[in-house]
């Protein structure tokens, strides 16, 4: 049996590994590098992800995969501190003392926010799917908490669609990020970067006989009798990890879900100084062409990189703003008093389908693993609801692989 996998990101690679045990597997990846949104840049002395990534304590499938690939000694737990940039000032918000000192919420607001954080893991996310996040926060925490704390975050991430976003997404985010101590969140990382995981998965798949074709876009998917034709090659089954609406476009078949997506434009900068006062994740309340400054070298040790590495995170709808790279870099240098000579390098990664927008009712449009004879899995699959993650993408790949194997047997 020959199986085609469209997309060489985490889901595609996670599916390929078990499928190679019973079938021939070919992976088509349109980009030169594997990994999807987990792909990395190669600098002179280190690798760095094009989009910031870390994992969480409950990511059991990810940890199992790391063990199976013999990479456990490359995995580590680190602490991620947080802050909020308001009115030109960096406010640390990691320790209880720092939160108490934060001047833009009243003590009562902070108590309500803290209680929600403690309750988040026990809330029924299914019951929140149809509830807008903005409505939920206003009702449970009050207008002031929404306006001064949550609304800027939702606006920077979802723009004009912020009022459509489900409370299930927001509460899941709060719950998963509540594993923290006085030094910050407990977050997982690979010592040499996540490219070690991507490379390990690809190498293992190839050892088992998988063919991986990078820089190869799929131009058409066509039904041929009892099989499929992809780029002129015949396959018994096709697994597509790209957005469902793109599958419909390539196959010419209707009926695939129109999953709401947003794009991401993420700038990575190498420079000679820390700009966030030691904070890893700095959310921006002040208007800026990016919604967060993620100082990677305030998370992973700076000595591995020989310079500071910082991300500027922004999101968009149909397409990014014109001249975005210049706009982001100029604003960053002005806002954080960074002379251009202090910037060693910068890269802008742009992905139109960076992730679903988890609008109200999203649970009702999640595609099945098999539709119209094709197999589908990815960021849009149920393990990635109500928030995408590496764990969810690996789970989707493994679950759809089991579905394919079961159908064959």
Model description:
The strands form 5 sheets. The chain has a 7-stranded mixed sheet with strand order 7-6-16-17-18-15-19. The protein contains 12 helices and 21 strands. The longest helix is centred in the C-terminal third of the chain and has 19 residues, at 390-408. Helix 1 (10-19) links the parallel strand 1 and strand 2 (24-29). Among the domains are: 2-53 and 194-260 and 358-408, FAD/NAD(P)-binding domain (3-Layer(bba) Sandwich), CATH 3.50.50; 95-182, protoporphyrinogen ix oxidase, domain 3. Helix 6 runs antiparallel to helix 7 (143-158) and helix 6 packs across helix 8. It is an alpha+beta fold. Residues 10-404 form the Amine oxidase domain. InterPro entries: Amino_oxidase, FAD/NAD-bd_sf, Zeta_carotene_desat/Oxidored. Pfam families: Amino_oxidase.
Features:
409 residues; seven-stranded mixed beta sheet; six-stranded mixed beta sheet; alpha+beta; 21 strands; protoporphyrinogen ix oxidase, domain 3; FAD/NAD(P)-binding domain
Portion in helices: 25-40%
Q: How large is the count of helical segments?
A: 12
CATH superfamily of one domain: FAD/NAD(P)-binding domain
How is the CATH topology of one domain named? FAD/NAD(P)-binding domain
CATH class call of one domain: Alpha Beta
Segments where pLDDT lies below 50 for 5+ residues?
none
CATH architecture of one domain: 3-Layer(bba) Sandwich
What does the radius of gyration come to?
Answer: 22 Å
Distance between the termini: 11 Å
The profile of the biggest β sheet is: 7 strands, mixed
**Strand share of the residues?**
25-35%
How many strands in all? 21
Gross morphology? globular
Q: Strand order of the main beta sheet, please?
A: 7-6-16-17-18-15-19
Mean pLDDT: 97
């Amino acid at each position: 049996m020959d199986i085609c996998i469209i997309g060489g990101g985490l889901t595609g690679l996670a599916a390929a590994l078990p499928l190679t045990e019973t079938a021939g597997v070919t992976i088509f990846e349109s980009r030169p590098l594997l990994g999807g949104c987990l792909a990395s840049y190669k600098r002179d002395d280190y690798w760095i992800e094009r989009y910031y990534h870390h994992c969480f304590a409950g990511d059991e499938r990810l940890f199992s995969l790391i063990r199976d690939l013999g990479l456990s000694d490359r995995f580590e737990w680190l602490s991620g501190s947080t802050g909020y940039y308001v009115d030109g000032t960096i406010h640390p918000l990691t320790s209880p003392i720092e939160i108490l000192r934060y001047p833009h919420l009243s003590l009562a607001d902070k108590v309500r926010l803290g209680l929600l954080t403690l309750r988040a893991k026990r809330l029924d996310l299914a019951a929140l799917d149809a509830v807008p996040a903005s409505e939920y926060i206003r009702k449970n925490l009050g207008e002031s908490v929404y306006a001064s704390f949550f609304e800027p975050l939702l606006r920077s991430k979802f723009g004009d669609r912020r009022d459509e976003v489900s409370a299930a997404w927001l509460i899941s985010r709060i719950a998963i990020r509540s594993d923290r101590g006085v030094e910050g969140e407990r977050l997982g990382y690979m010592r040499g970067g996540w490219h070690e995981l991507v490379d390990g998965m690809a190498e293992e798949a190839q050892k088992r006989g998988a063919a991986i074709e990078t820089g190869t876009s799929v131009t058409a998917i066509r039904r041929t009798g009892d099989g499929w034709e992809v780029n002129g090659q015949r396959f018994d089954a096709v697994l597509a990890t790209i957005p469902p609406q793109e599958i419909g476009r390539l196959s010419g078949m209707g009926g695939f879900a129109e999953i709401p997506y947003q794009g991401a434009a993420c700038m990575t900068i190498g420079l000679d100084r820390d700009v966030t006062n030691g904070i890893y994740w700095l959310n921006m309340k002040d208007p800026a062409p990016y919604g967060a400054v993620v100082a990677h070298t305030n998370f992973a040790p700076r000595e591995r990189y020989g310079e500071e590495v910082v991300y500027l995170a922004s999101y968009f709808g149909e397409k990014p703003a014109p001249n975005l790279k210049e706009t982001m870099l100029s604003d960053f240098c002005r806002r954080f008093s960074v002379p251009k000579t202090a910037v060693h390098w910068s890269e802008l990664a742009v992905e139109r389908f960076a992730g679903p927008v988890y609008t109200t009712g999203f649970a009702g449009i999640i595609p099945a693993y098999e539709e119209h004879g094709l197999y589908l899995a990815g960021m849009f699959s149920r393990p990635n609801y109500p928030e995408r993650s590496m764990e969810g993408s690996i789970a989707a790949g493994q679950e759809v692989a089991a579905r394919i194997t079961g159908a064959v047997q």
